[in-house]
Amino acid sequence: MTEDREADATEAPRTLLIIGGAEDKVGRVTILRRFVRLAGGRAANIVIIPTASSVPDEVVSVYSTVFSRLGVQDIGAVNPPSRSASSDPDLVARLDQATGVFLSGGNQLRLSQLVVGTPMGEALLRAYRRGAVIAGTSAGASIMSQFMISMGEEGVTPRQRSSQLTVGLGLLTGVIVDQHFDQRARYGRLMSLVAGSPSLLGMGIDEDTAAEIRDETELTVVGSGAVFVVDARSAITDAHEAKRDAPLLVSGAVVHSLPFGATFDLTTATLTHFVEKNADISVSFSRDRHDTAAAAAALRH
Amino acid sequence: MTEDREADATEAPRTLLIIGGAEDKVGRVTILRRFVRLAGGRAANIVIIPTASSVPDEVVSVYSTVFSRLGVQDIGAVNPPSRSASSDPDLVARLDQATGVFLSGGNQLRLSQLVVGTPMGEALLRAYRRGAVIAGTSAGASIMSQFMISMGEEGVTPRQRSSQLTVGLGLLTGVIVDQHFDQRARYGRLMSLVAGSPSLLGMGIDEDTAAEIRDETELTVVGSGAVFVVDARSAITDAHEAKRDAPLLVSGAVVHSLPFGATFDLTTATLTHFVEKNADISVSFSRDRHDTAAAAAALRH
């Protein structure tokens, strides 16, 4: 244990950039710019994985263009057409050189089928542990967790068996990651899964928003929406006995809506820091300060 | 104070039946049947208030038919066409005789405009306090609270100024009531209001679902969906300074999804009782009991 801890202490921080889908690609490009910076900026060696998508060539073309505009020169892609192809040593070697990996959107079950548990999946874990940043958007976000959400309806009331768990890449343990969270009203489906597995936190990420996670613990929010976290470890539920489609009892879950400017500790499930980035009262605050200063000056005379 | 308490103790229990809209009117009629029962069954004297609706005559016709089928003989309606008409002594006298009042759906701001603070509004408070059941669906649900929600977008991420408060009837203090909660994904708009007013509980009621509330304290869930309650009294928020439309910080709110079979204390904001009404494991449980009994019998030999 002591040796392991010492080894951990000397390792590079492990970084995930988990994106809720539909991140800006033509404006300020806040999130993809952050990815490039984490991957090493102009010196980055980026591998795009478009395997979840039904239009992989377009996906590679779009992200290559964006990363290239952001100054990256070394951009490649790997896209195994089958599970056996994920053992290809050339593909694994390409990932072993990456400083940043980007998993596209699409169908996350394609990634479970083709990548999880293969030499390619192991290469992704290796890259993550040696300090390469692993980013994923939409399906590429959900696949990162050990227990991955898939399927399910829209709505805010949690219902029995409205969604399901599948094995994901395992880069993030202890958290279920859902995406397009606000836009597709996925509160109910995420809540239904943590009701059944209360040892896991639920995390729902809005579009054009990312959870940047350091060492599986420190979460920082980037982008225009919010990251939702639910902690149902102390909740009372009937997920062990409710009938299919029945609304679930979930009483006492603790929830967090975290916008840009928030940092959160996933181990203790608490807000650690917040700096307001969306204030509109600076003017009235300034005026208040000015008036008070003027009154204080007048009183001194 | 002592006299007041003694007076309270001798009063009839005060009962609200707050319905999330679209309650069943042709099948098992669970919720409307409950209303009729609370109002006195066949002996009930029911007044329908269709004032929120743009089709008040149809509303009165539909509910009269349902209540009549459930055995009620004394069914009337009051529908003031203007605020001044809400002072009409005949209208007030009709409400003073009611054992049950039913407020229809529509636009709750019409009820704020025409009824709140008028002799008709006072008659509703009087009826409630003497033990008549007050039911309302959709707009008729929201109007019951002292601080009433109106307007707002769909979605689960709370955003600054995405909804607003108006003065309601004041039958229920300390709770904001939202409706069509699951179907219109109103989690975000309700959360944004309790973020700004954390002393209030937020309550979101699904369609075909009702919160039956006794003495402003004991909540029982009736119907096919769930009642959602959020308690943000211990949450950290930036609702005092976030910019319009910005996603809000709300960290540490406690949430409850309560299906049929749950009772909840609104004063302490805790689940008080739950009986599973939607189980599908009785068969496997029976088998488990049978197997265990058989093994025990075999071991005794």
Give an overview of the whole structure:
2 copies of one chain form a homodimer. Chain A is an alpha/beta fold. The first copy, chain A, has a single domain (2-300), classed as Rossmann fold. In chain A, 31% of the residues lie in helices and 27% in strands. Chain A has helices spanning 2-10, 30-39, 56-69, 89-97, 108-114, 119-129, 139-142, 187-196, 282-300; strands at residues 15-19, 45-49, 74-77, 100-103, 133-137, 147-150, 164-167, 175-179, 201-205, 209-214, 218-223, 226-231, 236-237, 250-259, 262-265, 270-274. In chain A, the strands form 3 sheets. The first copy, chain A, has a 9-stranded mixed sheet, with helices on both faces. Chain A has a 5-stranded mixed sheet with strand order 8-9-12-14-13. The model of chain A is unreliable at 1-9 (pLDDT under 50). Chains A and B meet through helix 8, strand 12, strand 14 and strand 16 of A and helix 8, strand 12, strand 14 and strand 16 of B.
Essential attributes:
homodimer; 301 residues; alpha/beta; Rossmann fold; five-stranded mixed sheet; 16 strands; 31% helix; globular; disordered N terminus
CATH class membership of chain A? Alpha Beta
Shape of chain A: globular
* Tally of individual domains of chain A: 1
Q: What strand order characterises the main sheet of chain A?
A: 3-2-4-5-1-10-11-15-16
Give the biggest beta sheet of chain A: 9 strands, mixed
Secondary structure: helix percent of chain A: 25-40%
> Over all CA atoms, what is the radius of gyration of chain A?
21 Å
Catalytic activity (chains A, B): [L-4-(L-arginin-2-N-yl)aspartate](n) + H2O = [L-4-(L-arginin-2-N-yl)aspartate](n-1) + L-4-(L-arginin-2-N-yl)aspartate
Organism (chains A, B): Branchiibius hedensis
Function (chains A, B): Exopeptidase that catalyzes the hydrolytic cleavage of multi-L-arginyl-poly-L-aspartic acid (cyanophycin; a water-insoluble reserve polymer) into aspartate-arginine dipeptides.
Keywords (chains A, B): Hydrolase, Protease, Serine protease
